[in-house]
Design brief:
Length: 53
């Protein structure tokens, strides 16, 4: 059986969500320079989940 947790980690690492339009952008390392949809510069890691409301 493959290590699913590792696969999930690889999928989520390097993926960022634009805080302006919620578009996901993949980046090899670090945050993307700008969103390809709205050219915004505000990003958050995709793996970060909402914990409170
Ligand atoms: Zn955007």
């Amino acid at each position: 059986m493959a290590d699913m947790s590792l696969a999930i980690k690889r999928n989520f690492e390097g993926v960022f969500v634009c805080q302006s339009c919620n578009a996901t952008t993949r980046s090899a390392s670090g945050k993307p320079t700008k969103c390809r949809k709205c050219n915004g510069k505000a990003f958050r890691p995709k793996k970060k989940r909402k914990k409170s409301n």
